[in-house]
Input
Amino acid sequence: MPGALLDTNAVSDLMRDHSKVTARVAKHSGPIVTSVIVAGEIRYGLARMPVGKKRADLEARAGTILAALPMKFITPRVAEIYGNLKASLEAKGLNVDDNDLWIAATTIHYGTVIVTRDQIFPQIPGLQVEDWSV
Output
């Protein structure tokens, strides 16, 4: 089974104990990773929440989950893939959020599938997409 890179909403699903995502993670026989971009988006979402018990609980869950997931970093090859993807998608009239493009480029570079509910990813050529929440 190929490796899987968890997108932001998949990590968020784990933080909220989404039963289907949690079960798929437990059953997956290949490596499961995430991206430093995803970690940044998770931290940003938490920082925007009001201080309180809910935020503290989610911060604790995020810390545990992100510590357990190997992080894939931006490399020169990922940057090259990103640039080519952005140019080719813009030429087709498709504007994709930069963070999503960095995550897509990372996924392509490392040869993993991307686990996400985000509907933009299936439109990106060369990307294998799975939704573990269904």
Summary: The CA atoms of residues 15 and 64 lie 9 Å apart. Residues 4-130 form a domain with the Rossmann fold fold (CATH 3.40.50.1010). The first strand starts at residue 4 and ends at 6.
